[in-house]
Every structure is written in structure tokens, then in C-alpha cells.
Hints:
The chain has about 425 residues and is mainly alpha-helical. The chain folds into two domains: about 5-370, Rhopdopsin 7-helix transmembrane proteins (Up-down Bundle); about 380-410, no CATH class. Helix content is about 75%, strand content about 5%. It is built from 15 helices and two strands. It has helices at about 5-40, 45-65, 70-80, 85-120, 120-130, 135-155, 185-230, 235-265, 270-275, 280-285, 290-325, 340-345, 355-370, 375-385, 405-410; strands at about 160-165, 170-180. The chain has a two-stranded antiparallel ribbon. A hairpin with a 5-residue loop joins strand 1 (about 160-165) and strand 2. The radius of gyration is 29 Å and the shape is globular. The chain starts with a helix and ends with a helix. Belongs to the G-protein coupled receptor 1 family. It is a multi-pass membrane protein. Keywords: Cell membrane, G-protein coupled receptor, Membrane, Receptor, Transducer, Transmembrane, Transmembrane helix. Pfam families: 7tm_1 (PF00001). It is found in: Cell membrane.
Amino acid sequence: xxxxxxxxxxxxxxxxxxxxxxxxxxxxxxxxxxxxxxxxxxxxxxxxxxxxxxxxxxxxxxxxxxxxxxxxxxxxxxxxxxxxxxxxxxxxxxxxxxxxxxxxxxxxxxxxxxxxxxxxxxxxxxxxxxxxxxxxxxxxxxxxxxxxxxxxxxxxxxxxxxxxxxxxxxxxxxxxxxxxxxxxxxxxxxxxxxxxxxxxxxxxxxxxxxxxxxxxxxxxxxxxxxxxxxxxxxxxxxxxxxxxxxxxxxxxxxxxxxxxxxxxxxxxxxxxxxxxxxxxxxxxxxxxxxxxxxxxxxxxxxxxxxxxxxxxxxxxxxxxxxxxxxxxxxxxxxxxxxxxxxxxxxxxxxxxxxxxxxxxxxxxxxxxxxxxxxxxxxxxxxxxxxxxxxxxxxxxxxxxxxxxxxxxxxxxx
Length: 413
């Protein structure tokens, strides 16, 4: 319970906008994704439906967490749990499952992004061959199952207990107020915190960082090929647009890690105390300032759930602008069916563009290499003709030559 008046005011000022903005934004994302899933029927659009399922699942998880905000706010302001044992179980279930499920979905999305950019044809063929979104749905259900399994100790021990008042003389008195908590045994608590920290923060952060490291390395390697295959200025545009996608997704992942990092840092303090790794840490943190920091760190995950949709909107706006311009150049690729026509009309969905553009980039690169062979040869021919030098093998038999040029070629041979 927060007894300080200013503390209560700040708590309301923080949670009310977080709850309102988060609920409205995530509902908008869910409705937008459901609309996309309903309208995308062409074979290629199954790839979009695949990624849209991950976005939909993440938004649902965020809304579930935000639904706990009124319960948490009432608990902090009143100091009494009013929602019974079932409400206490639900609160700990949603809180702890979100610690694993949300970051797991972000990890899968990062891996999908890496495959879509570095192995677009393999990635697309796998998605089209299935022709359904059950693959993504199955992955989400598996992640949900393991999240529930790993969080089961905290859910099992979640229970109501009376508030105990400790007086200066050492006496203890039970109060009529009820608290909601999960009193795991010390050895279970230490093990629970350790594997939750590793599986919910360390490994996802490492895996996501590796995915984007290799993705950036791939973009750097292919930058020169883009500049060779596109006219001057357009190759730089393609590279810049691809870099925007990477930065946008990195902002989403970085925002998640910034919100969860301080939380896990303070959660590790009981582990340090239990194993007596650093004897001075618990004593140094036992003051009002660090207790306030610890409380703030526990509020940051709610900000993450409320702010994810903002990053989706900003990212997709950049993608929409880039794909609209790229639609003018989509004529060189004939393998995209209705998606090519949607790009020309500038009506492609912002969510579906999240997947389309890396595939277009790679396809354009591959198609342009084949289709610009004659153009490059003709350009070299004109340059050599002006210099009165003709190199053998630069032209195919279909290129017309004059008698003087044939004689010059014979002399050079």
C-alpha cells in the first residue's frame, strides 16, 4: 500500500494513460490484423497471414496484461486484495506467462524477419506450400504451453494471506486486510528466478541480437549488388529502405528489452542474497530510494505492453511509404500476382508490407541481374564504339554491326 499522497497521485497519473492508450492501441492492432486475415486470400498472402498471426498473438498478450492494471492499481492504493483467490491466481498467471510468451513471440518474429531477408525464396516456398496459418498458430500454442509449464510453480503457490502488523516490541498482529502473494520455498524461488531470467531475458536477447547481426551483415554484402543492378540513385534508395526496416524492428525489440531489463535486474537481488554472492548488496539497497526504483522497475513491463502497438504503427508507416515508391519498379518481377497490382495502386496493406518488401528486394536483385544483361551489353558496346574499340564476347549474335566494325573486330582478333 502506498500511503504517500504524491506517490498515489503519481501512480494514478502513470497507470491511467498506460491502460487507456494501451487498450485502445492494441484493440486497433487486433482489428486491423483480423481485417487483413479476412481479406488476404491469394497464395502469396499466406505469408502475410503467417506473420500477422504473431502480431495478433502479441497484441492479445499485451491486452491480457493491461487487464491486470485495474487490479494492481486498486491493490496498491487500498492495500487490500478484493478479487478473491481466483483473481489472485489469474493475476499471477497472466503476469508470469507474459514474461516468457511476449519475448518468445518477439524472438520468433525476429527469426522470421531474418529468414525473409536472407533466404526469401526458401522462406516463401515453405509458407506457400502450407497454404494456411496453422504453422504460426501452432508455434504460438507451443510457446503458450511451455510458458504455462515453466510458470506453474508461481501459479501453484499463489494464495491469499492476512496482513500481519509488526510492532516495535516484536509482537505480531493479524489484520483484516488480505494480501495476494506467492510464497515459494527458498530453494524453489531461487531456481524459478534463475530459469525465468535465462529463458525470459538472456537467451532471447542473445538470439535476437544474433539474428539482427547476421541480417545486417547480409545487407552489407548485398548492397554492392543492388547498386550494380539499379540505375544511379535507385540502388541507394533500396538499401536505405531496407535499413529502415531493420531499424524499425530493432526499435521494437530494444523497447522491449529496456522495459524488462531493470525489472530482471531487481528480481535477481533475492538470488544474490540467497547464494550470498555479494554480502553488501541487500544492505545497500535497503532504503527508500532503491525501494522506489524497484517499484518503478516493476511498472515498466506495463509500459511495454501499452507501447508495442505504437512501434508497430510507426514501423508500418515507414514501410508503406517505401513500398509505395517501390511499387513503380515492381514491373520487373512477374512472380507476385495480385500483390504487384496492389503495389502499383498504392493500396497494399501496411501490415502485409512487413513481409513483402524483403522478398521483393531479393527477387528484384535476382530478376534484374538476368534482365539487364542485354542493357549492360549495349551500354558497353556504345562506349567501346565511341572509342573505336570493340572487345570480343561483349555482344550476342543478335546485336547488329556494320562492315567497318566487323573489320575492326577481325583486326583486333
